[in-house]
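pls read this stuff:
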Amino acid sequence: KIERRTGKQVERTGCHTTAVIGRDADGRYIAVFRVGSQHSGELLDELLAKRLPGLPRPLVMGDAASANAVTVCPVYMCGCNAHALRRFKELESKHPRELAPLLSAYRQVYENDAHTRTEGMSDDTRLAYHRQNSRPIFMKMCRDAQALLDEHKVEPNSKLGSALDYLLNHQRSLSAFFRLSGAPMDNNLLERELRLPVRLRDGAPVFRSTVGAAVAAGLWTLLVTTILNGINAFAYLNALQRHQDDVKSDPLLWLPWTYQHRVDDLGRCNRTDRA
């Protein structure tokens, strides 16, 4: 593989399943899965390189791993609060006193985010709500975390110290949900959908070839994209098989949210021919 930052060729081992779930301007989800030696940032680079010029800078959500970095265009990086919260929860039983206010703060922020979904707020309305209600809680949480380190109540090199450092070092990206319109709080949507390839991995640890891996990734891409948009995946895949020649001739007519119109058009043409 060519290292994106240095241009040097490096040898890699292992097989990774990476995925990106994007949301377009109309609110539709598009999932893309890839199986191979690539990292998630390389898949992001490949997709964003095809992005039309002149569009707003995209929001990119992920954890703070360097492998998630985008190099082909400017982006707004949004940190995954679920990763920061998970670090605290793993240590809660050992440090209940220190972590109680931090976990309480995160609980309030997540309750606020749930309220925005329940009310069906637009991205801009949600942003204003979080700025008013969640920003003060989040900023106080960060001050409390800093105080634990400054007052030597936590050993900096301990696991808790590392968890506090993660929150403080990535404070800007983790706070994207109250700084940027449309920024999610975490990457949980993608992590839920990654359970699909995990099931196959547990049942069949390896693919026979790169072709088999590509076929699996293609099926996951279709299935997850269809399901996320509330479309019947079974009906959709059957329609693709029944009309495979038409699908090959014009794939854009057979996207999950357009295929039913094409099926209806073909049905009307058939009825006209019989008449």
Remarks:
- The radius of gyration is 22 Å.
